[in-house]
Amino acid sequence: MKVVIIGGGFAGINLALDLANKDQFEVTLVDKNNYNFFPPLIYQVATAFLEPSSISYPFRKLFSGKDNLHFRLGELLKVIPAEKKIVLNNGELDYDYLVFATGAETNYFGMENVKANAIPMKTLDDAIEMRNKLLQQMEQAAICTDPEETKRLLTIVIAGGGPTGVEVSGMFAEMRNGILRKEYPELAGKGSEIYLVDGGHALLSPMSEKSQKNTYDDLRRLGVKIMLNCHVKDYVNDKVIFDNGQEIDTKNLIWAAGVTAKVFEGIPTESYGRGRRMIVDEHNKVQGVDAIYAIGDTCIQQSDPNFTGGHPQVAQVAIQQGKKLAKNFRRISEGKVPEAFTYFDKGSMAIIGKNKAVVDLPKPKVHFQGFFAWLIWLFIHLLSLITYRNRIRTFYNWMIAYLTKDQSLRMIIKPSRQNKSVPEKGIQ
Question: Taking a C-beta distance cutoff of 8 angstroms, is the pair 36, 56 a contact?
Fold first, then answer.
């Protein structure tokens, strides 16, 4: 049975690994990157507290020794359901079952200037780009003689008050109040400001009121300026423009305000629902096509009695759907009836800063805050990393940062933009 998985995030990788060494399956995972990475920690790569290798791992190394798992580097161009075939940018693949686990991409809500100039926070490439850009802005600010330009270089606006926005703003605030004052003494008092903007009435809207209030209060104490009930309207000439008429001059708009799923040629229009997510049944089979499934952020499933509006686009849903689909594929191969997916909510959490976090557990309904919640966040995120190597590296970096109140990974490392041609005769 040929299973082709498009996307190697939480959903795709859990599906593949749960089918490993099952001889009845030949599994091929397709991804445009040759590595799996851990999205909840990309902001720590972006702020130079972790190396990219701490939260990523090559697919081929991960699949080593699992004879029925294969990796294909490529991008999906279209699906041909009638022929059970997909077309990639570098070839074609046949399948018996096709699984979309493509996650979601940044949603700019049609604002082209924001899309062109803001810094997204979705991929490892985004994190590295953000780290390089912000470090370069700091260096430029250190030699700038125009006070207004210096302030624009140092001011950061984060759009989106979910976990990513909260965690990024808290990290920046702690860096500004500690590390950067030591390393950039010439910038003291130059007007560095951090704004966290959200269109809702509270930060971390899916979490409890206690978590929302704790987060708001902790960020305010760190010096973050919070703007609620406020939407970004445009970003032009280093100026963030809001729907209430307010404007902020900055060269740094970080976009963590929303996601949308991807649309693929060959999948009928009627198979897509809200947020361009593929509509699936209780077994994650895509509506309107045969032998095609979708799991994780790219699908919307409304058959779960506890989530009739669809599941939240979070890691635990993707992980659980990947594992359940693997189980159902095994049941199908044995001639058994597949089981319906139901999501087990393990709770929500967000880190705000050192010794500061919030955790909500649904059963029993419990709220934690402060140091204990911070320890829970560290423990859960370490366990969620894909290999022991990742866990050890990340734990080491966290302990160094905690004990020394510093980190030494703030290097600007980027490829040269110059096109270097190879000499025709030999290497000179």
Answer: yes
The tokens describing 138, both together, are: 């700091």
Span 15-35, mean pLDDT? 97
Cβ-proximal residues to 204 (8 Å cutoff; 6+ apart), any chain? 161, 162, 163, 166, 211, 212, 215, 348, 350, 358
Question: Terminal CA-to-CA distance of the chain, rounded, Å?
Answer: 52
Beta-bridge partner residues of 105: 260
Q: Which residues contact 273 (CB under 8 A, 6 or more apart)?
A: 279, 300, 310
Residue with tokens 């046949």: 94
pLDDT in tens, 279-318: 999 999 999 999 999 999 999 999 999 999 999 999 999 9
* 3-class secondary structure, 193: coil
DSSP string, 6-42: E--SHHHHHHHHHTTT-TT-EEEEEESSSEEE-GGGH
CA-CA distance, 105 to 79, in Å (whole number)? 20
Give the per-residue pLDDT at 177.
81
Q: Please work out, in degrees rounded to the nearest 5, the angle formed at the alpha carbon of residue 164 by the alpha carbons of 32 and 205.
A: 125
How would CATH label the architecture of 112-258?
3-Layer(bba) Sandwich (3.50)
Q: Which residue has the tokens 């991008």?
A: 75
pTM over 0.85: yes
Judge whether 428 and 93 are in contact, CB under 8 Å: no
Angstrom distance (rounded) from CA 3 to CA 23: 12
Alpha carbons 66 and 84: distance in angstroms, whole number: 25
CA separation for the pair 106, 259 (Å, rounded): 5
For residue range 316-371, what is the model confidence (pLDDT) as tens digits? 999 999 999 999 999 999 999 999 999 999 999 999 998 999 999 988 889 999 99
The answer to whether 358 and 204 are in contact (CB under 8 A) is yes
Question: Residue 419: CB partners within 8 Å, gap ≥ 6?
Answer: none
* CA distances to 91, 111, 129 from 78, in Å: 11, 27, 29
pLDDT value of position 47? 85
List the domain boundaries for the chain: 2-32+74-104+261-333, 112-258
Q: Are 104 and 259 in contact (CB under 8 A)?
A: yes
Domain 2-32+74-104+261-333 in CATH 3.40.50.1820? The answer is: no
